[in-house]
């Protein structure tokens, strides 16, 4: 580990040196971080400075404090859940591989308006009414929790029966839309971010764990958005897998080729 350069916030400098040692592999995952006394002697700083540095690294998720033992570099195990996001169909019957492992933790909750984020994705204004359902699911084998949200515009639900059953499973919703004459396709975005406090509590996330957030739009005839689904899960507890098939190139692109 390097030297402390003054002036500057000492605890941030100490944290930076420890961080560098971790990323360089000098302190590997699962290994103990030098004790407070060792760090004090090494950098010539006070105990509060060392403790603040350790607290900063803990908030970043780089180290964890084990009571009675000390600070350790946090090991990052492989995700314990693989969520298959592929949709398969035979006519008007749809399935999603792997979704059978998730069980409801509580009764689904409903609300009826769009937000500034979800509205535009459905071609609606903020605050527009719709059918919506929030699910909290869990894998009984691993305990991993997953938040799943379904947003169904009134225009989509009309004539499908979905208005009476907005808590239907996604595959049943797809089937109802296909029965109504829609030729379906899906687009999905995936990102990771710092969780909001309610997400951290609901998903039971540890300190500094990111949330994996996917947004799936179901498109129908003329590519109009029919349905919006959001999935949120701990980024260190799950990974997503997809089946990718090639799209046909636009006619103008084929002509240039």
TrEMBL record:
KW Isomerase (keyword) present: no
HTH gntR-type domain sequence ranges: 8-76
Keywords on record: DNA-binding, Transcription, Transcription regulation
PROSITE patterns: HTH_GNTR
Top-level taxon in the UniProt lineage: Bacteria
InterPro entries: Bact_HTH_transcr_reg, Chorismate_lyase_/UTRA_dom_sf, Tscrpt_reg_HTH_GntR, WH-like_DNA-bd_sf, WH_DNA-bd_sf
Keyword Transmembrane helix: no
Protein name: GntR family transcriptional regulator
Organism per entry: Streptomyces blastmyceticus
């Amino acid at each position: 580990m390097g030297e402390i350069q003054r002036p500057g916030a000492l605890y941030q400098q100490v944290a930076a040196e420890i961080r560098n040692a971790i990323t360089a592999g000098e302190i590997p995952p699962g290994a103990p971080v030098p004790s407070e006394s060792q760090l004090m002697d090494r950098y010539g700083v006070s105990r509060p400075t060392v403790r603040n540095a350790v607290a900063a690294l803990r908030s970043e998720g780089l180290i964890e404090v084990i009571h009675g033992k000390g600070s350790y570099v946090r090991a990052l195990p492989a995700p314990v859940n693989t969520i298959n996001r592929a949709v398969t169909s035979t006519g008007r019957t749809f399935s999603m591989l792997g979704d059978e492992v998730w069980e409801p933790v509580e009764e689904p909750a409903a609300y009826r308006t769009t937000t500034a984020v979800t509205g535009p994705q459905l071609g609606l204004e903020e605050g527009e009414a719709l059918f919506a359902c929030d699910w909290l699911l869990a894998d009984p084998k691993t305990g991993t929790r997953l938040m799943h949200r379904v947003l169904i515009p009134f225009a989509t639900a009309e004539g499908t029966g979905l208005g009476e059953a907005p808590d239907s499973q996604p595959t049943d919703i797809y089937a109802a839309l296909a029965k109504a004459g829609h030729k379906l396709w899906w687009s999905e975005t995936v990102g990771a971010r710092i969780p909001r406090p309610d997400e951290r509590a609901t998903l039971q996330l540890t300190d500094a764990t990111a949330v994996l957030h996917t947004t799936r739009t179901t498109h129908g005839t003329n590519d109009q958005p029919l349905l919006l689904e959001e999935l949120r899960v701990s980024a260190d507890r799950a990974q997503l897998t997809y089946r990718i098939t090639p799209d046909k190139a636009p006619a103008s692109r084929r002509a240039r080729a």
